Amino acid sequence: MFELIKMDAVLTRYIPFVKLLSMLEQGFFIPKANLFTDSWEGSLHLFNGEKDSFQTENQLIAAKDWVYVSCWYLDKPESHAMWNSYGQSNDSLAIQTKQLDFKLAFMRSRIDMHARFFPVMYQKPSSAYNLYDGKGIPSWFRDEYKVSHPIFNHLPLQLFHKHEAFSFENEARLVLVDNDATLEKNNEKSGLHFSIKETREMITKIILHPNASAWFEDTVRKLINDTYQLDIPICKSSLVGHKN
After folding, report:
1. Which of 144, 149, 150, 171 has its CA nearest to residue 14?
2. What is the DSSP letter of 36?
3. Which pTM value belongs to this model?
4. What 3-state DSSP class applies to 98?
5. Which pLDDT belongs to residue 141?
6. CB 3.0-4.6 Å disulfide test: which of 147, 186, 221, 235 passes with 152?
């Protein structure tokens, strides 16, 4: 059963500094699922080395070329494990928004695609077969949607499930299916962007890495306050002094 995320729920992304620059200059980016480094994404039945009987491996690869995924940490407190995994250097940070602000940014960016936004459910390999119960996933945006192949209904479901070893990520995902999705050709886009204006407005807070230097803090503050003249609170991590 998919649980709805409250509109005031805090969403966090742990990112390197360069991704913040990219967001402010080009808009929030949502990549294609096949650009993820984890090749197991969307392959529930391969957790234990078995072949997935619901589609061929080639079909899965082709379908992931047309599905976009944005991953968020769903919790207000900071996570030391997330800093270790995604704060790849002391010059990294976390951005925060709320689901309401995130959804408004999506809608105002005029991305007219079938969208789903739910927490990830973490599974043992042995339980993966029970997930195909014929139930659909409620829509976050745009109810009417036609797909060219049933896999574009199954793949979003699979992308909301991960191996239980990743449960520390406490992840919520936005999953979008391109309106032109097909298994017959490749998608030339690497992903899609929110508008620059909506991206800047949806960020409600920036948290600096626990071991961020004074130089890095000063750089981020000048970038946000002086260069872009944005009124975004910039805070030091509550985990200052805790080494990775």
Report:
1. 171
2. S
3. 0.87
4. strand
5. 57
6. 147
Instruction: Evaluate if residue 134 carries a pLDDT over 50.
Output: no
Average pLDDT estimate for 82-103: 91
Helices (H), the chain: 17-26, 57-64, 80-86, 99-108, 151-159, 196-202, 214-221
User: DSSP per residue over 172-234, as a string?
Assistant: EEEEEE-TT--SSS----SEEE--HHHHHHH--EEEE-TT--HHHHHHHHIIIIIIS-----E
For the chain, give percent helix, strand, coil, nearest 5.
Answer: 35, 25, 45
As a whole number of angstroms, the distance between CA 149 and CA 146 comes to: 9
Burial of 141 (0-12, 13-18, 19+ CB in 10 A): middle
Q: What pLDDT band is residue 44 in, cutting at 50, 70 and 90?
A: low
Q: Which of 100, 32, 94 is nearest to 67 (CA)?
A: 32
| CA 16 vs CA 52, 76, 90, 201, 208: distances in Å | 35, 19, 9, 20, 10
According to DSSP, residue 15 is labeled E
Q: What is the tens place of the pLDDT at every residue in 172-227? A: 999 999 999 999 999 999 999 999 999 999 999 999 999 999 999 999 999 999 99
